[in-house]
Amino acid sequence: MATLSDVARRAGVSPATASRVINGSSKPVTDELRERVLAAVAELQYVPNAHAQLLARSHRSAVGVIVHDVSDPYFAEITRGLQRVATDQGRLLMICNSYRDPDRELEYVELLRGHQVAALILAGSGYHDEAFTRQLNEKLAAYEATGGRVAVIGRHEHSGDAVMPDNRAGGYLAGRELCGLGHRAIGVIAGPRILTTTTDRLAGLRQALTEQGRELPERRIRYAEFDRDGGAEATARLLDADPELTAIVALNDSMAIGALATLRTTGLAVPQQVSVLGFDDMPIARDVTPALTTVRLPLVHMGVRAMSLVLGPGAAAPRVEVLPAELIRRDTAGPVPRSTRATAGSAPRARRGDTTS
């Protein structure tokens, strides 16, 4: 492979001049020299060493992002927002999937710190794990001491800039909607217990039910992975434990889609016999049949705001931005059946357009 010295010799300039042209230095270079260097780069098919460039620059160009799984629609939408701002500012995004493994998350913080990224964004949920939280904060503090910037998305026990989706309020909206439709026998498909996202969404839902005189016993809650298969399996277990459920709240849309699949397999009509309500409003929520009633979070905007915080001017005190949730009414939540498990063959209701609350 051609080296910087090869380019300099071909162009008839010093290596320092060739470097200034290739790296876009602010130091002046004549048009003639610039053209000679660029011609040599093209002839030799020279590719700059990105790692060497990073070490040579005082300006760090990359931003590290740790997500649970970028193939998950939730994180894919957040990443769209992150990428939008990074691209506008000429930054490279380095995305790491932790797959909800706290140890892997710690390893990635060290790895990204070693790559001297300009900023770090933790885009996944926080954990109810004191030992992990202590280690994470120690590593982030060491990184920030070198001039790195940090922001988190979601509730983390970290003192710093944060973008907080109002998960508790979203859970409350879901509970209030189902109570308003007359449901009392409500089951919940929750995510992993260790995640703060699960705790907050469940707490808001429970608050709404309590205010309306409803109970949410543990037998009506099933914890599972935040994915379609987890939702399908948890729904089957819920129905086995309590066949008289009239509504199911899934704490993310992927789980809700799994719930719809299980209900379809068991011959239970949605929403005539069982209502289903999701969370997040992923793009697929409006395309499933029936279209999913859900709680919307501004996922792309969450990514935009987190990246804007770490790339914008700093602040003397941590900044916390809370982004609201809203209820999106579609076709999977309806009034409680007049008789438990009414005939599944009843005609479906006319499809409605999206409405919000």
Name the descriptors.
357 residues, alpha/beta, seven-stranded mixed beta sheet, 12 helices, 13 strands, DNA-binding, transcription, Peripla_BP_I
How would you characterize the overall build of this protein?
This protein is an alpha/beta fold and 357 residues long. It has twelve helices and 13 strands. The chain has helices spanning 4-11, 15-22, 31-44, 50-56, 73-88, 102-114, 130-145, 167-180, 196-211, 228-241, 253-265, 299-311, and strands at residues 62-67, 92-97, 119-122, 149-153, 161-165, 186-190, 221-223, 247-250, 275-280, 293-296, 320-323, 326-329, 355-356. The strands form two sheets. The chain has a seven-stranded mixed sheet with strand order 7-6-8-9-10-12-13, with helices on both faces. A six-stranded parallel sheet has the order 2-1-3-4-5-11, sandwiched between helices. Helix 7 (130-145) links the parallel strand 3 and strand 4. Helix 1 crosses helix 3 and helix 8 runs parallel beside helix 9 (196-211). The chain is elongated, with a radius of gyration of 26 Å. Residues 341-352 have low confidence and may be disordered. InterPro entries: HTH_LacI (IPR000843), Lambda_DNA-bd_dom_sf (IPR010982), Peripla_BP/Lac1_sug-bd_dom (IPR001761), Peripla_BP_I (IPR028082). Keywords: DNA-binding, Transcription, Transcription regulation. This is LacI family DNA-binding transcriptional regulator. Pfam families: LacI (PF00356), Peripla_BP_1 (PF00532). It comes from Micromonospora parva.
